[in-house]
Amino acid sequence: MLNVPNLVTKYKSGEMPVLESIEFVQILLDTELISEYPEFDKLADYYISEGLCYYVPVIIMPELKE
């Protein structure tokens, strides 16, 4: 299992290579954890606009809720 806080620390310390940072941001997007780390919003927006990452928001339709 991924340890997101460790990845955040690695990125902030400058130890994360660019390709790994792209994968990291994609993980944040895929798991909807991007909202818990607002400091990565601009980076995520940049990677998305450059086609390096993608974001498909999860919307639960009301009729599927219990």
Order of helices and strands: HHH
What shape does the CA trace take? globular
Counted beta strands: 0
The overall average pLDDT, rounded, is: 91
Amount of helix: 40-55%
β-strand percent reads: under 5%
Terminus-to-terminus distance: 29 Å
Largest sheet: none
Describe the protein's architecture and organization.
The chain is mostly helical. It has one domain. It is globular and about 45 Å long. The N and C termini lie far apart (29 Å). The mean pLDDT is 91.
Quick structural overview:
The protein contains three helices and no strands. By secondary structure, it is mainly alpha-helical.
Give the SSE layout:
Layout: H1 4-12, H2 18-30, H3 41-49
Please supply descriptive tags for the structure shown above.
single chain; 66 residues; mainly alpha; globular
